[in-house]
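W.,

You were right to be curious about this one. When I first looked at the sequence I had no strong expectations either way, so I just let the prediction run and decided to look at it fresh. Below is the sequence, 441 residues in total, followed by the output.
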Amino acid sequence: MRLTSIAAAVAASLLMSPTLAAADPGEGFDVTRYDLALTPNIQDRTVAGREVITLRATADRLQRLSFSSNALSIDTATIDGVPVVVRSQADGLHLDLAKPLARGRSVKLELTYHGRPARGLSGSATALYTSYFACDWMVCVQDRFGDKAAFSLALHVPAGLDTLSVGRRVARRTAPDGGEVHRWAAPRSYSAYLFGFAVGRFARADDRVGPARLSYLGETADAAELKRRFAETGPMVRFLSDKAGVPLPVSEYSQLLVQGREAQEAATYAVLGVDALATKADDPAEDWAIAHELAHQWWGNLVTCATLQDFWLNEGVTTFMTAAWKEHRYGRAAYEAELAVARSRLDKARAAGFDKPLAWEGTYPTLATRRAVQYSKGALFMDHLRTVLGEDAFWAGLRRYTRAHAGGVVTSLDFQRAMEASSGRDLRPVFSEWVFGAAEK
């Protein structure tokens, strides 16, 4: 066989090897740390960054690293100092390694990049904030929720601007160009979709609930308005802590008030639009956004579904807990009204011919349909369990589930087992009906 034929055969065998062919983002490795130095530009909504990703191979002879796709231009990439080519494709960012990694081997991938993210950045003429799509403004794995990683972010910003990010600010220094570098560090490992930051000139008001500090920030609201709009946060923290059996999982929780209808949690803060908040006090119909995003500090951020298949454990639980907060704050009628909204959304999906078990692993036709099942049906299932089990066993089960899996990742079976342990009942029939469907074994 000629050398060219041998080379072709080798290339073909590489392409057919499982480790190289498995191009799904995050497949074959586990990220343990993301460390970024980022320069965001408020005016044109671009970013330039240097990122170090520490990862460990979980597959034998791993030859390809794949991350979520984005619109960034990768300028340089090295693995343990050795240059590597990054191919940007619709299905991901792919790096083919010159030498395969053995299972258990840890390496550092260092990248520099720049560009205008297609998603995940919003703001005004004088402020910028991120929302959900972290892997559009950095290199990471967006949908592999079970891969939690440590996170630090050094933001290079013009002097005098305020910043917000995950965890707490651990350093602030003057940059050589006269700007400032604010370094933030997360208190624990989080899923990548929970990373974020904000830059601008923000008014601020602070409060406390127990040992935790509550911080309220906004670009167009003063401290008095921020305190008024977020006045219910402290009572919500106390209510949710009691129902979770776990105190607020972060020492400082921040809420950033922006324009529009934004309602998005991050690892230790939330971004909330003025149009998503109640326009007047004591309005149970509109009092949902603060409670929902705050509830994610327990269900979603602290206890995280392993994959999108069990996303109802993040969103269905928090949608239900929003209703439970309304019941506590306003009475039973407010609880029933919130669940009626969920029922209406699910009925709409059913009228269109779509209804699936909560842990269905197929593809949803639209985002609204996914939400009708994982958010709304999830909340209705929680209400059904509450009725079936009774108050004591239901809330004991939720506390058991939250405490047992704090800081970890979960599946629907973990939730079933916690509820069975608290009630002493076999819940396979009800979980088969609502959660697993025909797929249950």
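Here's what jumped out at me. The two ends are 51 Å apart (CA to CA). And, maybe more interesting for your project: DSSP finds twelve helices and 22 strands in the chain.

Coffee later to discuss?

I.
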